[in-house]
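Subject — a protein and its fold

Tokens — whole-number codes for backbone shape
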Amino acid sequence: MSDFARLLQNEIPRLRRYARALTRDPARADDLVQSCLVRAIAKEHLWEPGTDLRAWLFTILHNQNVNEIRRSVREGVVVAVEDVAPVLTVAPRAGACLQLRDLERAIRLLPEEQRQVILLVGLEGMRYEEVAAVLDIPIGTVRSRLSRGREMLRRLMDMKEDSDVTFDRSHEPQNSAYPREAA
């Protein structure tokens, strides 16, 4: 092995670290180091013994990297779908939008008195007493309209009684003479 080859071999770990820092991709960094070493061997006659070999090699490596970037910009970057598929996938959002659209349609189909109670309790988060005061009806009427409205919504949305949909009951009074209806 020549002296030049030994000197090159000693610089490979530093070249690899610099190439990885430049590319942030181990495979591409290794390719860059390899092309740098091939170029250095081909241009050995241009290196003057006694000068800083590391600086000369880093210059070659840097220029190789710049050339590859320019070439990829000119030719267009080609990326295998398999390499970026996990990054490009997005969770589907259409399901939630469709459910919301269906719920809005179902609410529009409710009788006016049930729709009012459903919206005041479910959307506005009002307590039963507040809804009763707003609509000027007894609290029992609020409960029955809410129960019938929820049941009709379940049917309109094709839900079963034992579905995993739950309704927020934080607005309901805790001590009540009326039992809570099943959600």
